[in-house]
Design brief:
5-stranded mixed beta sheet, 641 residues, alpha+beta
């Protein structure tokens, strides 16, 4: 028998619609009933491609024993964190407050009947283990909470009141710090302390790609010729693309690697990771002229275009699990690949296996994840890849979350425009996707956050949607010089300032859940830093200093922490350097700008904008004046230097 989630659009909520748990979606009815019947509230937050969310569903929410306790004593609410990031962010604050560390997925929150939280966990197994509170199982925990709530336990209610008062207390930075390029020295020291000299990356296992950190290192190398920055970028990008976390067969990156060598991934693929890495590998190619970087960037873009899009709209994610297990679709047995190659006339199979790290014992639960032994790709690898895709085609493909998200889609559109500087076909794909996204998500003057493909969006946009969409529109303007894109970018930036900005501080959401926007680059780049990027671009292109004023006030508001711990704010650091050094605007007629797109993309100075004019030559301008002109695009680099 299905529950109340049956009519919801969210793929994550749909996954739980046949649980024996009597789930509510987020709604007033649930909270009113909890208070009326004096029942505790259980809020479970996750997303469709989350492996541990699936495990908790199987072990807990499909268990009749657990469901009976929940249905009798709790009001249970399911939330898709991708559909409602405002709710998710609010309860992540609760988790951090109660546990003194960052949370994860699924997020499990218990509240009083008045919706005041008092306990927060992540995955909670059904049975208890050990004697500590950390080892308490779901059955024991829910029985205990139900008893205390029904008895109106004084200590529990007091704790809930304290949590709520902490959440309502807003802190502002203690002081501002003078912005200076010296912040880079601190950044480099902190990055080196985290850097893995052997395999690249900036942590031990589990290892995430940290695209924002790598992108900032690339900017630092371009500005200062920093050899250590260059070495860290190249080593990390080369190691990541060898395979494992990077899917050598289909293309695209998985979310993270569970080991320090990038071999065994958590197999889900997220749009935001792939968008940011596509742009990063493209920029690394433009900077270091490594063809393999361009190859990876194109494979990411092509994978998402061919497998993860519909009607020029990008799906949000694909799952780690298929056929009831993690990674089943992606891995290969020694015997099946040996037979495949043998049947197709390959004689040097042992050499191929060595190059692709395929062995009888395997590198993942007796199976093989493909990983290049060194930089060299085996001869005829494109044909071998085609055959390996054939093996995968016989398997069940992981679940695809067909939600369209404004912020994440805009990230990929921007990446396509960046690739379009090298290959015009990607510019055309980017234009098509941008138009499709605006048609779907911008309705009657209102911007929306997300909706399932072919459905009408209901959740209004958050700061990240305004920020990343404005950034993509500015990239579209730079690529096409179509002023409509610039006008729209300005419109969305103005709306974001009006809705979310408050004296240097930015809110992520307003309305039901007013949450402060993160300035640190975590799962992906901070929307605050993206807004600074947008405002600086608008200031240069429109020659309007009010935008650079808002950008400066934002950086200044965060300057104390930026100076102390820049490693946490790499994109903000990048924008601070841009503010201090200034943009260079290249002006010429539209034909010249478009025919010189690649040459202009290869300029060493990293902060470049383009604007069409009547000029026959190239004019090189700063924010205050144009200071040089040339008829030779190859001389612009020297002029800027």
């Amino acid at each position: 028998m299905s529950n109340r989630l049956k009519t919801e659009d969210s793929p994550y909520l749909q996954q739980h619609c046949d649980n024996p748990v009597d789930w509510y979606p987020w709604c007033d009815e649930a909270f009113e009933r909890a208070e009326r019947e004096n029942k505790a509230i259980f809020i479970s937050i996750g997303y469709s491609s989350c492996h541990w969310c699936h495990v908790m569903e199987e072990k807990v929410f499909e268990s009749q024993t657990c469901a009976d306790i929940l249905n009798e004593s709790f009001i249970c609410i399911k939330v898709d964190r991708e559909e409602r990031p405002d709710i998710y962010k609010h309860y992540q604050e609760v988790y951090m407050l109660l546990n003194r560390r960052a949370g994860g997925w699924p997020t499990s929150i218990f509240c009083t009947p008045q919706n005041k939280p008092f306990f927060a966990g992540t995955y909670i197994p059904p049975e208890s283990r050990g004697g500590s509170i950390d080892g308490i199982g779901f059955i024991e925990l829910t029985k205990l909470i139900a008893q205390k709530v029904s008895q109106r336990d004084e200590q529990l209610l007091k704790n809930a009141d304290e949590v709520e008062s902490f959440l309502n207390h807003k802190e502002h930075p203690k002081e501002a710090t003078v912005l200076k390029e010296d912040f880079v020295k601190n950044f480099m020291l902190q990055v080196k302390n985290n850097y893995d000299t052997l395999y690249g990356g900036f942590s031990v296992a589990p290892k995430f790609p940290h695209a924002s950190t790598l992108g900032t290192l690339l900017i630092i190398d371009k500005l200062y010729g920093d050899k250590s920055a260059k070495a860290m970028i190249l080593n990390t990008l080369q190691n990541m693309k060898k395979g494992g976390m990077y899917d050598l067969v289909d293309g695209g990156f998985c979310r993270y690697s569970v080991d320090e060598k990038w071999i065994v991934p958590h197999f889900e693929k997220m749009l935001y990771d792939n968008a940011l890495l596509c742009e990063l590998y493209t920029n690394a190619y433009l900077t270091y002229d490594d063809e393999s970087f361009l190859h990876v960037a194109k494979e990411i873009a092509d994978f998402w275009h061919n497998r993860m899009s519909e009607d020029a709209l990008f799906y949000s994610a694909s799952d780690a699990d298929s056929e009831g297990e993690e990674g089943t679709y992606f891995v290969y047995s020694y015997d099946e690949v040996y037979k495949l190659l043998e049947d197709n006339g390959y004689e040097n199979i042992d050499t191929i296996f060595k190059a692709l790290s395929i062995s009888e014992e395997g590198n993942f639960e007796g199976k093989n994840i493909l990983r290049l032994k060194d930089e060299e790709v085996p001869k005829d690898f494109e044909n071998i890849k085609f055959l390996l895709r054939g093996l995968r085609a016989k398997r069940e493909y992981p679940f695809i979350d067909k939600k369209i998200q404004t912020s994440w889609s805009a990230m990929m559109i921007k990446a396509l425009f960046t690739l379009g500087k090298i290959d015009e076909s990607y510019t055309q794909k980017a234009i098509k996707s941008l138009d499709a996204l605006l048609n779907m998500m911008y309705i009657e003057g209102k911007l929306y956050h997300t909706a399932l493909i072919h459905k009408t969006p209901k959740v209004e946009a958050f700061l990240e949607d305004y920020a990343f969409l404005s950034q993509a529109l500015l990239e579209a303007f730079n690529a096409t010089q179509d002023e409509l894109y610039l006008i729209r970018a300005q419109h969305f930036a103005n709306s974001a300032l009006e809705k979310f900005y408050d004296k240097g501080m930015w809110k992520f959401s307003i309305g039901e859940f007013e949450t402060k926007a993160e300035v640190s680059d975590n799962t992906y780049t901070s929307p605050v830093s993206i807004m600074v990027d947008v405002l600086l671009s608008l200031s240069s292109l429109l020659e309007d200093e009010k935008y650079s004023h808002f950008a400066f006030k934002t950086i200044e508001y965060n300057s104390y922490e930026l100076g102390r711990r820049p490693v946490i704010y790499p994109y903000m650091l990048r924008q601070m350097l841009r503010y201090l050094k200034g943009d260079r605007v290249i002006k010429s007629n539209q034909t010249k700008l478009q025919s010189s797109a690649l040459k202009l993309a290869l300029l060493e100075y990293p902060f470049i904008q383009k604007k069409a004019s009547e000029d026959e030559n190239f004019m090189v301008c700063s924010d205050k004046s144009c200071f040089a002109n040339t008829d030779d695009v190859n001389k612009i680099n020297d002029i800027i230097q």
